[in-house]
Structures are given as C-alpha cells and as structure tokens.
Amino acid sequence: MIGYVTLGTNDLARGARFYDALAAELGVGRMMEFDSFIAWGEPGGKAGIGLTKPFDGQAPSIGNGVMVALEAADTAQVDRLHAIALAHGGSDEGAPGPRGEGFYAGYFRDPDGNKLNAFIMAG
C-alpha cells in the first residue's frame, strides 16, 4: 500500500552517502534526483525512500514514533544493513537480533536522526 517514504535532511550530500550505501546493499540505486531531493528505489518496484530539504525552507525535524522499515532478504542482510548504516554516519538504536517469534531486526538512525530498521519476517 505504501508508495514511498520521504524524510527530511539538513545536509543532502551527507544523507545521500548514507542512503546510497543502504540502497546498494538492497540492490537499488537512485531513481530520481534534483537539487534538493533524491529518491532511491526501482520504478514500478517496491516502495522507495526519498530524502529532501523541506519545501517550506524550515529545518527538518524527526518524528517521534516514526520509523521506516527496510525489508531484507535474510538475517545476514539485516546484519549487513545495520553495519552499513553505522559505517556511514548512522547511530545504533538496537543491534540485529530476534524480536519475538518469526521477526529479526536491527534498528538505527540516519545522520539526521530519522529512525529506520532492517527486518526479515519468517514465513
């Protein structure tokens, strides 16, 4: 149902390095790019993610309780995505591991403080 998610940034170049690395691990790249906005994903594919300087010119802020979940192929990819995030300026919000029966996830924040996770659900 979700088409894409857009997050705000104070530094588009810094954020782009972070999301370029995550997108590469997920097998996608940039699909749209303007001076103040970049989107990653695959046209006609799963939901993508965008990063933008806010249209109103005000500073972006993170949403309390808002999180973007990135679906991984397996637990090893969850581990890699978490490590990639931390290596590219992200911060740890919960190491990868099981979170209840059939759910494995790792939590992190991007350089602007937006919360994300990488996860896999066992069928």
Quick summary of this structure?
It contains two helices and eight strands; from the N terminus they run E-H-E-E-E-E-H-E-E-E. It is an alpha/beta fold and 123 residues long.
Tell me the count of domains.
1
Structural classification: alpha/beta
- Element string (H = helix, E = strand): EHEEEEHEEE
The CATH topology is given as 2,3-Dihydroxybiphenyl 1,2-Dioxygenase, domain 1
Describe this structure in words.
This protein has helices at residues 12-26, 75-87; strands spanning 4-8, 29-34, 37-41, 48-52, 68-71, 91-98, 103-109, 115-121. The protein has one domain: 2,3-Dihydroxybiphenyl 1,2-Dioxygenase, domain 1 (Roll), CATH 3.10.180. The mean pLDDT is 94. The protein is built from 2 helices and 8 strands, in the order βαββββαβββ. With 123 residues, the protein is α/β, with parallel strands linked by helices. The longest helix has 15 residues, at 12-26. The strands form 2 sheets. Strands 1-4-3-2 form a 4-stranded mixed sheet, with helices on one face.
